[in-house]
Amino acid sequence: MIIRTQRQLIQAVAKRWREQYQPFSDKDPMDKRGIADKLDALDGNAASAEDVNAIIGNQSWTRLACDECKEDTTLTVQVGDEPDYESHTAELCLECAEKAAALIRGMRVELPKGESPCTEGRKDNVRLTD
Question: DSSP letter at 72?
Fold first, then answer.
């Protein structure tokens, strides 16, 4: 599990853009190199999502949404696999993560005596990032 914030997306957008589109082509009508240069010039600590969106032309690189309630948010917990093609990954906002925890806590009450939930003792699968 990792914590993701919109600020992290903004701070990493230039690097992620280059990873996605390099090598650049001079024949590209979208001018991905020019977009990369503009993203490089942004101050990741001060730029807003709107600043990035104006450069790229859409909000897909800065949008952070909960996969459960579908609401836009500025902070999620990402659970499951590392995001990739055919991965099982979900982004949960605080409210939905708390609801999920409450459901699991309720389930613990109903477990047969002596049995524990699958995550008991598994602290190695939790990773926090800043």
Answer: B
Burial class (CB in 10 A: 0-12, 13-18, 19+), 24: middle
pLDDT in tens, 57-80: 999 999 999 999 999 999 999 999
Can you tell me the distance from the alpha carbon of 67 to that of 72, in angstroms, rounded to the nearest whole number?
Answer: 10
- Give me the residues paired with residue 75 across strands: 5
* Number of Cβ atoms within 10 Å of the Cβ of 116: 9
Helix, strand or coil, per DSSP, at residue 1: coil
The number of residues making up the chain comes to: 130
- In Å, what is the CA distance from 74 to each residue of 19, 54, 94? 23, 18, 10
* Helical residues (DSSP H) of the chain, grouped into ranges: 6-21, 32-41, 49-56, 94-109
Alpha carbons 120 and 64: distance in angstroms, whole number = 30
- pTM attached to this predicted model: 0.76
- Alpha carbon of residue 35 to chain centroid: 22
H or E segment at 28? none
Q: Residue 74's closest CA among 50, 98, 106, 49? A: 49
